[in-house]
User: What shape does this take?
Amino acid sequence: MRFPLQPSRANPAGMKAILAITAALAAAPLAAAEPTSEQAEVIAAADAFFFALGSTRKTDLAEVMLPEGMIFVHNRMTPDAPRVDIVPVAQHLERWARTSGRFMEEMRYDTVLVDGDMAQVWGPYVFVTNSEVAHCGINSLSLVKTESGWKVANTSFTMERPSECKRLGAPGFEQ
Assistant: This one.
């Protein structure tokens, strides 16, 4: 499955439809109950995180993450040899600043929990590299409210082959 990374000049109406469907799907889990103002702030911070991942300005990601955090990658790309990779956010940000290519990650926010200055966002995601699905899985974002607003502190996610996206209910692959 291919995902465009920029609006198509040939079919702007089609792109608008895709964006409308994507927005509806992302909001669907919370549609049963209107999010609280605290949840809305956390959702906005998660949205900013995913926007930064897709930005061509690679330093944008550092503005929405805490460098003291950790990233746990539950890598299941080789099902017979799963592993957990642990990467400090500061190290990830250094590497990210040197990456090339186009990236897009989309996540459905199935669960958004907030307790004071601590929040958790959980749900399936799909990660696209240069218009091709690279992997998908389940994201768990841990956010902390700082003086400058909500920041992603720790992330833990499964990384699964694109053939698993439908089973996981990743955005664009729902059953």
Observations:
- Residues 1-28 have pLDDT under 50 and may be disordered.
